[in-house]
Amino acid sequence: MPTVLVPLLLAFDQILKLWALENLSPIPRPLLGDLLYLTLVKNTGAGFGLLQDKAQILGWVSLLVGGVLLYLLGFRRYPPAFTLGLSLVAAGALGNGVDRLGRGFVVDYLDLGTQIPLIAQFPVFNLADVCVTLGAAILLLSPGEEGATEGPGRSAPGPSSGSPRPWRRKGARGQRRRSRCPAPPPPPP
Fold it and tell me: What pLDDT is recorded for position 100?
């Protein structure tokens, strides 16, 4: 799942940001009535106006986080919900990291235009931000990495692997491992 989902989300995020740069302005344009507007914002910091003009540092941190998550996804198998959450956070971190290092700012374009008190001052955001937020929520609600296995197709030894005989591990393709010792000779007739 991560090998398809992360690149697709990353590409879609960058396409939407290019579209926003070409077609939007800082003047809000209604998308869904008074609920959602399209507004171009070039964010040189983090969310909620934090760390303004620190795009380089934030970019490297974002790429590091995305890279570490991809590394974890490549070397362990997790339950599907946990994998989805990690993939979404990785895609979002990489999407904003590419912006920060490539452009010097993050392109934000989704603006909640409601007058509800808690949401009225919500910052403008983008698809990568949605991925990070949704992925974090899934990770918080998912059962965790119980049942995670080492490597592609290999069960981790021990009681957490769910196997009653952890010493009889399977190989990379699921076949039983062959013994390195030669078979005993047949009994004499």
Answer: 87
